[in-house]
Each structure stands twice: as C-alpha cells, then as structure tokens.
Amino acid sequence: MYWLITNRNIEANGFGTTFADVTYWTAPADADPKQKASWSQETKDSFRAKLVAVADTFPPPTTTQPADQKHITFLVHGYNNSWSDAMGLYQRVATSMYSGANGLGECISFDWPSKGDLMGYLPDRSQARQSAEDFADVLSDLYDWLLIKENAAAKDVNNACKAKTSLIAHSMGNYVFQCAMNYTWTKKNRPLLVSLVHEALMVAADVDNDLFRSGEVVESGDGEGIANLTYRITALYSGRDAVLGVSSGLKHFGKRRLGRSGLDQTTALPDNVWDIDCTNLIHPDVSGISVHGSYFFPDESDCYPLMRELLRGIDRSVLIAKGMVPSALSKTQTVGS
C-alpha cells in the first residue's frame, strides 16, 4: 500500500502549501499516489490498525536474518516540493525499494507544506521547523508502540515487533527530522531504552555539517536527538550539489551544508554517524542543480543499491570492501557500525 501522513491543507485536487491538522491517508499499491482521488482518508486509529496488520505479516525476527527483516520506513521530502512533487519522490522510492517480493517493507510519506517555489526557501525553513512538532508527535507514538512491543517480547519472544524502523530524509526534510527527533528526545526525557530508528539516511541534507559536534556527550546539541534515538546514521553528500551551495549562501550561518561537504571532521562525532561522498555514484552529465535530487533518479545516479544495503543494516566496512562505497572518498573510519 501507499501511506501518507500530512499536515498540508486539503484541496479539491490535492494538498496545498499551508498548515492544517495532521491527517492520515492510504492508497492501494496499483494506484497513482500523485492523484488525490487515489487516496482514502483514515482516522489515526484506523491508519495505525492497518499498518500494524500489514507489519504483522512480516517474517518473524526469530527466524529471519537481521538484514532480511522488513521495514517500516518514513520518507521526508525537502524544500521546493509541491504535493505532486513530493508524491512523485515518494512513488520513485516506494517503487525502487519497497515493492515486489524483495521489497524492504512499507514506506510512509510524512508530507509537510513546502511552498513548491524555488524563491520560497526561507519560508520553507520556517514551515519545516513548525512541521517538526507534528512529526515529533508521530515519532512519539511510534516510540510508545515500540516500548509496548519490547515489553511484550520480554515475556514471549514470539510477540517481538516484526518490523525494523528506518527513515529517509532529503534536503530540508533533514531539518524536519533533526528538530522532530530533538523534540521527541526531550519529550521522552532523553531515553536510552530503545532505538526509535534503526537506520537513518540523510540525503543531500540541508543542515549544518557540524550537526553532531556534541559527539558522545549528552547535552543540548542540534543532532543529539538523532544520534541517541538512531542505531546508525549515514549522510549521503556530493560537492557537486549546486542547490546546497546556494542554500549555504542564503543563510550566512558560517557552516557548510552536510549534504554538500560531508561531516565536519574537526568536531567530535558519535560512533554511529558516518558519511559517504556519492559524487562518483552520480552520473557526470547531471547538472549541479539536478545533483541535489539525482540520488532518487536511477537514470541519473547509482545510489539506490547503496541505499538499500544501508537500510538493510550491512556493516560499513563490508560495503566499502564490496566496492559499494567509493572508498577513496570516504572520510570517516571504516570500522564496524
């Protein structure tokens, strides 16, 4: 199925660019998610019940290798995305990695009201910050559910959760992710009981590249929520990304963009964070502006096989040894995750 959680306003033929209450939607797998008519609105409870029912059909973790376990993955789009653009991205990701017998599981779009306008960058940043509060509510509910399943599994291993949780964020969607995880981390009193997210892919991230400068220290760092609630975080970046070059110039914050420069290696980094320079995976004829979204177009890059293996939890040293990571461009240590 297709799954949609959004805080956009509802319009006759789609969704708009202003805030509204969070709503929940589903669509059949053979529908076109870019068409409003494909979607049926659900209550929060019915959406959760359907998702739990699907996840319950996943192979049990007691008899399935960790890398082969199915996922419930959130996808968070970036700025300058109208609703139809966001659904186009969602359809490409779902089709490429979550469909068919070898699909990774189920993918849910968390869709926030980007302006869909290149000149709306700064308004989009404000929208992203506000949307993070709504996404944090979704993540908090997920955290509570995972705790329930963990307690149930402690009594009977057959009651363990059958799904891994993961997240893919693109561009400014990473700012939504960053703020939402900090809200969740604080709301839950900085818990270290369970990983809310197994694998997080920060693709062309429009956030500061010293996001994780707090390292292993628990304080009030920008990336603390992500680092402490996620098992492994991988930042995919390219120095050819012209969009993030413009982004850095607009903000004048003095820090480079994570999605353009990779992690700031002069700061302390948590052990579960690493980066991959994807420049050599992006086709050389792709323009600098198009590089920003090329990770998700199989005719413009070779990134999907890498993203799939990252989500499966394959160790970073194995990925480098298999040649899936351009080792000459990997700046971080190659020890196990």
UniProtKB/TrEMBL annotation:
<protein>
    <recommendedName>
        <fullName>Alpha/beta hydrolase</fullName>
    </recommendedName>
</protein>
<dbReference type="InterPro" id="IPR010297">
    <property type="entry name" value="DUF900_hydrolase"/>
</dbReference>
<dbReference type="Pfam" id="PF05990">
    <property type="entry name" value="DUF900"/>
</dbReference>
<dbReference type="InterPro" id="IPR029058">
    <property type="entry name" value="AB_hydrolase_fold"/>
</dbReference>
